[in-house]
Design brief:
302 residues; alpha/beta; Rossmann fold; 7-stranded parallel β-sheet; 11% strand
């Protein structure tokens, strides 16, 4: 397998994009340490059924080696212990994926800063920004011990899209823009050690929570277009997972250093598809179809 010698850390892998990324790295043969706060014995405030142990099992079932390490990435000592565990057990770290989030229950749509709940907004920033910096602080020293390491900062929206689109609220907007900038900032430091940093966004993600929101499953997801027609451009978490796997396997991934990337963009470069064989290009669709007021039609976009 292409990544059978690689060791990865996917921080924030309980569900959604993190889970999809972890599974696809496993499908390529990698050893994947997966972290999250929801475990089989204790749920986070999301109070959902998905657990970090389940993700590890999915990684192993896909062909890799999944190792669950329950971790709160706002607690430096827990992140330090996580990296020490990886060093002791694996002796290396080739890929770090920062997918930590946890803010879906905190942001309020289309509310100005004075209207938004302040405590929730500040908590959102801590979850979306501080966690990434804490993880980078402890994990990157191990990553740079070998040239060729890759850091992937996962966010919502490309740098170009976010630059002139207001993302729901000042708190959400800042969190997502900041992660793109982090990908660029870390690139300046990692390049000195022969390593690469990018930011990466999925398109309209059919996460567990999104499927539940539309009252559908992955098997009948198209029924969700009856509620929101533009849902036709949505993609599975495995699609962005395949983007990360392709980046990791590319011996020349340094050409992307500092770039803001999307799953749809990378699919065109590397040739991978979503699980249904399509290549959804959500961010182009959003601008050219949805925001242009055109009827929902994914022809030519997936």
């Amino acid at each position: 397998m292409a990544l059978s010698e690689k060791v990865a850390l996917v921080a924030g892998a309980t569900r959604g994009a993190g889970r999809g990324i972890a599974v696809e790295l496993g499908a390529a043969g990698a050893t994947v340490y997966v972290t999250g706060r929801s475990t089989r014995s204790r749920r986070s405030e999301y109070d959902r059924a998905e657990t970090v142990e389940d993700t590890a099992d999915l990684v192993t079932a896909a062909g890799g080696k999944g190792i669950a390490v329950p971790t709160d990435h706002l607690v430096p000592d827990e992140v330090r212990a996580l990296v020490e565990k990886i060093r002791a057990e694996a002796g290396r770290l080739d890929v770090v994926v920062n997918d930590i989030w946890g803010g879906e229950l905190l942001f309020e749509w289309n509310k100005a800063v004075w209207e938004h709940n302040l405590e929730n907004g500040l908590r959102l920033l801590r979850l979306g920004i501080d966690t990434h910096l804490i993880t980078a602080h402890f994990a990157l020293p191990l990553l740079i011990e070998r040239p060729g390491g890759l850091l992937v900062e996962v966010t919502d929206g490309t740098t170009d899209y976010n630059a002139d689109h207001y993302r729901l609220s000042p708190f959400y907007d800042l969190a997502k823009v900041a992660v793109n900038r982090m990908g660029w900032s870390h690139a300046q430091d990692l390049a000195k050690h022969g390593c690469t940093s990018v930011s990466l966004t999925p398109g309209w993600l059919r996460s567990e929570m999104m499927l539940e929101h539309y009252g559908v499953s992955e098997e009948n997801w198209r029924d969700g277009t009856k509620i929101m027609p533009h849902f036709i451009i949505s993609e599975t978490p495995r699609f962005v997972g395949r983007a990360v796997a392709a980046l990791t396997a590319d011996p020349d991934h340094a050409r992307w250093n500092g770039r803001s990337l999307s799953s749809g963009e990378l699919a065109k470069v590397y040739g991978f598809t979503d699980v249904d064989g399509s290549q959804p290009d959500a961010w182009r669709y959003i601008v050219e179809v949805s925001e242009a007021g055109k009827p929902a039609d994914a022809t030519g976009y997936r």
